Amino acid sequence: MTRSPLRLGVLFSGGGRTLENLHERILDGTLPARIGVAISSSSQAKGVERARSRGIACKVVEPARRGDADVFSEEITRELDASEVDLVVLGGFLKLYRFPPRYENRIVNIHPALLPAFGGKGFYGDRVHEAVLRSGVKFSGCTVHFVTAEYDEGPIILQRIVPVRPGDTVPELAARVFREECIAYPEAIRLYAENRLEVAEGRVRLRIGDCASSKADSLPA
After folding, report:
1. Beta-bridge partners for 10
2. What is the pLDDT of residues 50-59, one digit of tens each?
3. For the CA atoms of 123, 126, 128, 130, what is the dihedral angle to 10 degrees?
4. How many other β-carbons are positioned within 10 Å of the β-carbon of residue 159?
5. Residue 23 bears catalytic tag
6. CATH number at residue 85
7. How many folded domains does the chain comprise?
8. 172/181 Cα distance (integer angstroms)
9. Domain shared by 95 and 113, yes or no
10. Are residues 141 and 183 in the same domain?
């Protein structure tokens, strides 16, 4: 069982917009959680000031100064352990985090496309939206999933869908997808906080009462 409110550790590398969204949902009472610690992989990330200006404890762990992926990951783990987080939330975190076994199915990520399409190493941010537009697909969206050792291959928790419109630019599509991310991520965290997510055979089952759905929750826009 998880604690109430759920204690989050948020990892980011850039502007911290996801961190800000979660903080706002906590303040308006729609997300039963608190942010125990935010960790940035760069001291220059705009999200550092965004976190601290909102009274969120923020640590900086920069991989370049550690020189070793394992040392970098171990320091992140120490910070998460020290804050006794229940769930780790990746919010635009662009570095590899090699997490210990005790964090399995306790780390979530949001990807700006409908996985398994347009995912994997090197697919992040505008690169994803560029690939979507080049492909000619008619729909995109976002995917919340548990994190595994492989990029973007963890069990899917939920997805939200947006249309790809004729003449779309990368900024236009990115903005449309991000609006859905702001809905999807808090919803996935709420499901986790309510102990309604069960991972079985590489898939997420949604507990409904005494039963569990065999399909990942899907929330179309």
Report:
1. 38, 89
2. 999 999 999 9
3. -130
4. 23
5. no
6. 3.40.50.170
7. 2
8. 14
9. no
10. yes
